Amino acid sequence: MKISEIAEILGAESLTGEEYYDLDIKSACGSDMMSDVLAFHKEEGMLLTGLVNLQVVRTAQMMDIRCIVFVRGKRPDDSILELAKDNDITVLCTKDRLFGACGKLYCAGMPE
Amino acid sequence: MEQTSAITHSVMLDADKCKGCTTCIRHCPSEAIRVRGGLARITSEKCIDCGECIRVCPNHAKRAVYDELEELSKYEYRIALPAPTLYGQFNNLESVDYVLVGLLRCGFNAVFEVSKAAEIVSGYTRRLLKEGRAKTPIISSACPAVIRIIRSRFPYLCSYVLPVKSPMQLAASLARHEAMEKTGLPSEKIGVFFISPCPAKVTDVHYPIGLEKSDVDGVISISAIYKPLLAEMNKLKDPDIISESGLLGINWAVSGGESSGLMQERYLAADGVDNVMKVLDELENKRLPPLDFIELNACPGGCVGGPSTVENPFIAKARIQMLRKDLPFYKNDYPEKGFGDITLDWNDELAYRPVDAAGTDMATALERLSRIESLKEEFPGLDCGACGAPTCEALARDIVEGHAGKGDCLFFLKKSLEYIFADTKGNAVSMTDENGGLK
Amino acid sequence: MPDNVLTLHYDIEGNDFTSAGEASGDVKRKLRMLGISPNTIRKLAVAMYEGEINQVIHANGGHIDVEITPQLIKIVLSDEGPGIPDVEAAMSEGFSTATEEIHNMGFGAGMGLPNMKKYSDTFELETEVGKGTVITMTVNIE
User: Fold this and answer.
1) For the whole model, what pTM was predicted?
2) How far apart are CA B88 and CA B302, in angstroms?
3) B438 at the A interface (CB within 8 A)?
4) Which fold has domain B11-64?
């Protein structure tokens, strides 16, 4: 699923990395626990989370995650966006809650 | 034994005993085992039934799937095919006849020595060599584990494999034919059972290579028949002399035995799966040396080292040496006129069957291999096995195939945690103090 | 990472006969994973193995760069060894400058360079006495 489609399904606003909208995302993971992301995340995926701090981007960076969606309308500060930008990670922001956002993507065919 | 078409190997896991210790994954020569969720899992297509994991598992959680002795009752007339390795399992054995007559008292109506068929195979091979009908060096086809290694990894060597029935397969065909003539029974009422030192022979019966169908109906392990057989043998005094093989056939139990049956020196014999792989690599890399015959056995010492034997292979070998002393060199040969309908030849030569393709087409495979190479760089290269894969490269491959994640690597996990929880300036914090303890 | 090209690099130790052949073994394994035909694998394995052994015997080691594309496999063997004074002689079958000791180990039959040329589809050799040798070979994928 392309990042552009994900943004549309979630009615999400792009905060950085719109140039990667055509990138194909093969799996998704939703969690506020970065340790879960480290333990369960597979290749070429995205992360949906309600946690907003620098550690989220660093986790994404370590796991080759190409797209982060912050839920419940949470907006990261500039230092977070900058780190994401440096690492070619697209950051989206949606008003949906974590459960709802995951549900919408899952129903649209996004694999675990 | 229940076997679905998907299960093409005969080594299984006993999940209750497995502790997920990773010993087996590092010893498996075909990298067929992974520890996932605390349990060892064997990939069917990659397993070559060599039995290494059975040998090394400290918890005895790997076992070979054989037929039970109860299977005998399904048949009206039952024939035992003892592998010559069986003779090396008993202390102070005066003659092979004790074993053969003992088997007749364990529920079998007849015995047909595999060593007898071995002498015929040797004779046939000598003839092929003499007539120049085989591509040299001939690689022996007697060990099914070796054949599986060659057909999946050594494409160039496939055509050198002797396209001739193994002594077990030939013994079964001859024994069945003899029994049908003698009893007048139809084939399906005759049960032919191989007494085996290894699980590779079980697979070779269910999925024979080079043949459409095996004449063996069931395979019983040496370790399963050992006790009841020994009890019968102990009751015997001066058993009838029924053995029909010489020392050449019995010698097949030991590495180098098959080669000595060719009665010439231009041969190489290697045993133990690691040594076998090294020899095959050498053969494929270099031009082949001026040899006529290459004998390869996956088990250390030859079949006496099989995982389903009861005796130490070196002791078994010494006992076989002792047994040979009064025997003639050989008693059987390939007859000039052959065996009528029973042929020794395989239907086809060995076909290359790769199991480790990275993708269905070249472009996908190249892309995947590139990703495996770059992922590998992120791991420490220690091949510690803690992730459940035998090597860092195998983990990288599992990740690319979607079976694992980078977080399975403990080193990567620690590095990640240190980076993720680095201070705001991005300086990594160490999670451990100078003594290696957790902070 | 460019699409559809796999590049591999190996450093070869000089005079280390125990690990000689490891690099060609690794490439052979990867070609198998790519599903390349047995015949192509064999050609490449022999050509690269001979080059690797040459670096071990004559050049005190060297480097091997391998590039695999869907169409061909390119191997560049480079070393800072003694160079080859008489290329024409070295390219003829049976010509060998290997020592008795190396002959005793079963190498140095004078088939190294001829075999590399024979088993590859293109073969280029640049050498300078005292500076080193660079051999570029390609094997087409059938």
Assistant:
1) 0.84
2) 12
3) no
4) Alpha-Beta Plaits (3.30.70)
